[in-house]
Design a protein that fits this description.
The protein is mainly β and 229 residues long. The chain has helices spanning 139-146, 160-167; strands spanning 9-15, 20-25, 30-33, 56-59, 73-79, 84-89, 94-98, 105-107, 111-112, 121-128, 149-157, 201-205, 225-226.
Length: 229
C-alpha cells in the first residue's frame, strides 16, 4: 500500500459494516484498508503540552533510534524554540532529538500504576478512584503502587469506606487443573497490559525531583481524602 514503517497518519473515517479504516497521510492522500490484514499500528492522541527546562517528563512511545523505552522517565536539561530538546534519563543517559521527529512526550510527575512497575521512589502519592476505575482497582494494583515507595506511601481516594474492599479484590487467573471448577466457568477478571492504569495514577516523589517551589504537584489537589501514611 506504499505506507512506510514509522509513518504518521490521521484517522479520517471508519466503516464498521465493511470493517474498513480510512486514514489521511501527511501529504493529504487517503488510504483505506482492513485492519485485520494490515497490523502493527500504534494509536495515539495529540494533546498540547508546555515544557520548560527542569521539567520531569516521560516518553510515551519507545524509540529504537533514541534507545528509549515506553514510559521511561527523565528531566529536560535543554529546550529551544525550534523544538530541539535534550532529556537526561533516570538511567543516566543524555537523549537529544527534535520534537517533530519524536513527539511522544508527556509530563512525568505522575505515571499510571502499570507504568510504575519496576520503579522505586522515596515517597509516592497514589490516586485511586473507586467509581471511574472500578475494574482496575484490585489487590494486584495495590501491591504494585504501594511497594513503589521506600519510606512513605499516601493514598488519595474519592471514597475511603469502599477502598479496602476494592483493593482486596483478587483477579488472579485460576489454572485449568484446579479442583472444584466446573467446565466452562469464567473465573476472575483478566486485566491486560493495554488496559491497566488508565484511570488511576501514582506520583513518584524522589529526592531532587520535586515539583518545585511555588508549583502545585499534579497529584496534590482535587484527589479526595488522604487515608494514612
Amino acid at each position: 500500500m506504499g505506507v512506510g514503517a514509522g509513518e504518521y497518519a490521521t484517522v479520517a473515517h471508519t466503516d464498521a459494516k465493511k470493517n474498513l479504516l480510512t486514514v489521511e497521510r501527511e501529504a493529504g492522500q487517503q488510504v483505506s484498508y482492513d485492519p485485520r490484514r494490515l497490523q502493527g499500528v500504534s494509536v495515539c492522541r495529540e494533546a498540547e503540552r508546555e515544557f520548560v527546562q527542569g521539567d520531569r517528563v516521560q516518553f510515551t512511545a519507545p524509540s529504537k533510534d533514541l534507545h528509549v523505552a515506553n514510559r521511561e522517565l527523565g528531566t529536560i536539561v535543554r529546550l529551544d524554540e525550534r523544538g530541539d530538546i535534550a532529556v537526561h534519563t533516570d538511567s543516566g543517559r543524555l537523549v537529544e532529538f527534535q520534537l517533530k521527529d519524536h513527539p511522544h512526550l508527556d509530563h512525568g510527575y505522575a505515571v499510571t500504576s502499570h507504568s510504575s512497575q519496576g520503579q522505586t521512589a522515596d515517597r509516592v502519592l497514589i490516586h485511586v478512584d473507586t467509581e471511574e476505575s472500578v475494574h482496575l482497582v484490585n489487590s494486584r494494583m495495590a501491591y504494585v503502587v504501594v511497594s513503589r515507595g521506600r519510606y512513605d506511601a499516601q493514598v488519595y481516594t474519592n471514597d475511603k469506606s469502599e477502598l479496602a474492599q476494592h483493593l482486596s479484590r483478587d483477579v488472579s487467573h485460576h489454572t485449568a487443573i484446579q479442583p472444584g471448577q466446573e467446565h466452562g466457568t469464567d473465573v476472575g477478571q483478566g486485566i491486560g497490559p493495554s488496559s491497566v492504569g488508565h484511570d488511576h495514577g501514582i506520583a513518584p516523589q524522589s529526592q531532587g525531583h520535586s515539583a518545585g517551589e511555588g508549583q502545585r504537584h499534579p497529584m496534590s489537589e482535587g484527589m479526595g481524602e488522604g487515608i494514612g501514611e
